[in-house]
Amino acid sequence: MQLLDKMGFSIINTGGLGATVDTSSGNIVISVPSGNNLSSLGLQAGPYYLRVIADSATNPNDTLGTLVNITIGAPSSTPPDIIVDPDTVACNTGIVEFLISPYNQDSEYEWASDAINGGVPFTWPSNPLSVDFTGADVDDYTFVVTEINYGCRGPQSAAHTIDIISTPIVDINGPQEVCKGDTVDFNVPFIAATFYEWSTSRGEIIDTSNNELTVVYDSLGTANIRVDALNQCGSSTGNFTLQVKEFVDLDAGKDTTICKGNGAELTAESQGVPDTLATNFSDQLAGNGHMFDIRAKEDALITSFDGNMTSGGNKMRI
After folding, report:
1. Residue ranges per domain, the chain?
2. Which class does domain 177-245 fall in?
3. Burial class of residue 65 in the structure, from the number of CB atoms within 10 Å of its CB (0-12 exposed, 13-18 middle, 19+ buried)
4. Spatial separation of the C-alpha atoms in residues 89 and 140, rounded to whole Å
């Protein structure tokens, strides 16, 4: 078997391709070296004429051979690398380029990513792949690429993950009312590669971990939380105000018995200031400030009320 040039019919290689002939069916199985070894035969991937010459032919014309079209695909046996500019973190305000290395001009490359086309693979006609992340969700996205050389697929690249970030988001989450002595957690949405600095006007900071803060409050009054955040996309400052209140030691009074449908009055005392808790029976248990409803079941005339207003309290049985 000979490989001939498509343009000038010049002989490029004779007998270099391994072949097995089935003498019964006449089928020929051709063995083509991998892309990394093809050049040792003086060959490269692409289209050729294959000249098949028969020996011991009964028809003299058959000894002249037959020409058939053959295309050799030879992707690299080594997976391509993905090189990203800029690095592995980028802002959602512009274009990120994904460079294939090494790159074969005669191949096409199939990309797949959860950031594009719903994860469905696609081809891109040039190198690098340019992706516009303007307005994209803050998240990490993964890219892989596969070389396809004249229809033959090579090994897939290692996955490359890039974190797309934005200017820091500093909406502080936490309770607006706490009790003196409470240990309280606060946080803002986490963004990769972002520096966070926390401060508080009241209480003691006992732990900070990037986008999270833990404070112990040991005095009464208004407390202000502040977070300053900085990354390559910009900086932001967030503020949060809360009230630190006295722990309520609720004196619920003596146990009593009343009929369903009647009302009951509880008195809570804190630092000598009495607060009246007006209650009545209903099918719902609700609270609004110091106003409470007590649930009463159809088959029960006696129930209990837990007088917690903040972190503590006593019980009376009704």
Report:
1. 2-72, 81-165, 177-245, 263-317
2. mainly beta
3. middle
4. 9
| pLDDT tens for the chain, residues 1 to 318 | 788 888 888 888 887 777 777 777 778 788 787 766 777 777 888 898 988 777 777 777 777 778 889 888 889 889 999 999 767 899 999 999 999 999 999 999 999 999 998 899 999 999 999 999 999 999 999 999 999 999 999 999 999 999 999 999 999 999 999 988 899 999 999 999 999 999 999 999 999 989 999 999 999 999 999 999 999 999 999 999 999 988 655 555 566 666 666 665 555 444 443 444 444 444 444 444 443 444 333 333 333 333 333 334 444 454
10 CA to centre of own chain: 55
| CA–CA dist 248, 151 (Å, integer) | 76
Place of tokens 């800029």: 86
0.70 surpassed by pTM: no
Domain 81-165 listed as CATH 2.60.40.10: yes
* Intrachain domains 81-165 and 177-245 with the same fold: yes
Three-state secondary structure readout of the chain: CEEECCCCCCEEEECCCEEEECCCCCCEEEECCCHHHHHHHCCCCEEEEEEECCCCCCCHHHHHCEEEEEEECCCCCCCCEEEEECCCEEECCCEEEEEEECCCCCCEEEEEECCCHHHCCEEECCCCEEEECCCCCCEEEEEEEEEEECCEEEEECCCEEEEEECCCCCCCECCCEEECCCEEEEECCCCCCCEEEEEECCCEEEEEECCEEEEECCCCEEEEEEEEEEECCEEEEEEEEEEEECCCCCCCCCCCCCCCCCEEEEEEEECCEEEEEEEEEECCCCEECCEECEECCCCCCCCEEECCCCCCCCEEEC
Which residues, in sequence order, are CB contacts of 60 under 8 Å at separation 6+?
A: none
